[in-house]
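Hello, quick one for you while I still have it in my head. A protein chain has come my way and I'm curious about its shape. Can you walk me through what the tokens say about the fold? No rush at all, and the record is pasted right below.
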Amino acid sequence: MSKSISVLVGSLRRGSYARKIAHNAIGYFPDGYDARIVEIRDLPLYDFDYDDPEITDKPTPPEYTQFREIIQASDGVLFVTPENNRTIPACLKNAIDIGSKPNSDVAWKNLPAGIISHSVGRMGGYSSQKNLRLALSYFDMPTPGQPEVFLSQSPTLLDEDGNISQESTVQFVQDYILRFARLIEGQNPAR
């Protein structure tokens, strides 16, 4: 049975480096994996009033319900994110908050997570990845261990077609995706 991977891109820009990196990473999953980008651009800003049973005049947006169902049906989630002002982009934090409710049915709980961060500078999105790991740790989401993937100077890694052009980077990201797949297999052997 095929494993379903939800890929969340922490940039809304259509031509973003994060989206290009995500497309490359999707192609590195082994056979038997169906990895797809789950769009987060149209998710309304998180408001607990939507999930508060005491509030009856504010129904949960259908975008919340659909997003939560997609995440819950996943065998794993791959986050590909840039760094914005030393942290994760607001759109990604919004998606995490939406998946964190209702408390009785958290979409992220125990779901294997992979993280690829990048930056146009030399830090490779270090701060965004650490902040993302902090947010996800609350949900007991296992992640592959070392080495983590911080892609620095991301514009120089991609050719004019958006493909990662440096063979060493291709191998590095492929290795990470394969380690992530092994983590998923170990977490969900029956799925």
About this structure: Residues 20 and 161 are 9 Å apart (CA to CA). Residues 3-187 form a domain with the Rossmann fold fold (CATH 3.40.50.360).
